[in-house]
Design goal:
The protein has about 120 residues and is of the alpha+beta class. It is built from 3 helices and 3 strands. A 3-stranded antiparallel beta sheet has the order 1-2-3. About 15% of the residues are buried.
Length: about 120
């Protein structure tokens, strides 16, 4: 039987493997998380429409202007509201469909693809 004196922890090779795995996970997270932050920000901008009573968002064009201004304030420059958002107005309710995907290179010809698809039903302010 081996005594406690021969148990010394992780070997050098084991430690390097653990570091490589942690580095890969951290690298992947740093590439994907900004896209999620942008999505959450755009979602928050769309959901804030009913609270914007002073802006008079009463048409589809005004809705797009509100989203575009919010994206500019929050420094979201790589998304175009006209391409990622479809808005219709029916009886004082905006139906907004946010749908897009983002690609991020991972290793060589392998890409990470993040798809976002969410529908909103937002009342006019």
């Amino acid at each position: 039987m081996n005594g406690s004196g021969s148990q010394k922890g992780v070997s050098l090779l084991g430690g390097l493997v653990i570091l490589a795995i942690l580095g890969f996970v951290a690298s992947t997270a740093f590439k994907v998380l900004p896209h999620y932050f942008d999505y959450w920000t755009v979602k928050k901008i769309i959901e804030s429409v009913p609270a914007e009573k002073a802006k008079r968002i009463d048409s589809v064009a005004a809705f797009y202007d509100h989203v575009s201004a919010g994206m500019q304030v929050n420094n979201i420059r790589d998304l175009d509201p006209g391409k990622i958002l479809t808005v219709t107005l029916d009886d004082d309710v905006f139906a907004a469909h946010l749908q897009y995907e983002q690609r991020e290179p991972l290793i060589g010809n392998v890409d990470l693809v993040v798809k976002f698809d969410h529908e909103f039903s937002v009342r006019k302010p």
